[in-house]
Write a structure and sequence with these properties.
Number of strands: 5
Helix content: 25-40%
Structural class: alpha/beta
Mean pLDDT: 86
Shape: globular
Low-confidence stretches: none
């Protein structure tokens, strides 16, 4: 059982800000809630900020995930134009911010006794090396870590980086 983007809810265009957003998709509370609720693992989308920091967010259009921004004309926020510092100023629901890959790996360590599966869905070929840098810096155990992508070239690039990583 894999918590897709965590526990939920996924963002709904036109969502009223007053709705309960305690577990917005791809947030640390959503991932923790999924694991606390019995999920064997989680799936998370990984992209890069302008300053090349791997972060956990569904797509590059940040506006779709920021409370009150999706339906505001002229309020498009694009991840490619934002530094991590700028991104961390955005509320994705319930006061939560977009987590970094390093923060997700820290959360995984809290569940070390549960043999948690973490599926990283990568859509940006330029993210391979920065993701591997974070995995190596964090001393990440590749057991239970899976990289997935719709792009074969991304998977080939990860394989060149490590034979131990599950794809």
């Amino acid at each position: 059982l894999i918590g897709h983007r965590g526990y939920g809810p996924t963002h709904i265009l036109g969502m009223d800000d007053s709705m309960n957003l305690s577990f917005p998709e791809n947030s640390l509370p959503a991932f923790a809630k999924a694991l606390d609720s019995g999920a064997d693992g989680i799936e998370a989308d990984v992209w890069l900020t302008k300053d090349r920091v791997p972060v956990i967010i569904h797509d590059q259009q940040v506006s779709l995930h920021v409370v009150g921004r999706a339906e505001s004309p002229g309020s498009i926020l694009d991840l490619r134009d934002m530094t991590l510092e700028e991104l961390k100023q955005q509320d994705i629901g319930g006061g939560n911010t977009v987590p970094t890959l390093a923060e997700l790996l820290e959360l995984r360590h809290r569940y070390a006794g549960q043999d948690v599966i973490v599926n990283l869905d990568v859509k940006d070929p330029s993210a391979v090396v920065p993701i591997m840098d974070v995995l190596r810096q964090e001393g990440t155990d590749f057991h239970g870590l899976v990289v997935s992508s719709y792009q074969w070239d991304i998977l080939r690039s990860f394989r060149k980086q490590s034979d131990d990583l599950s794809l």
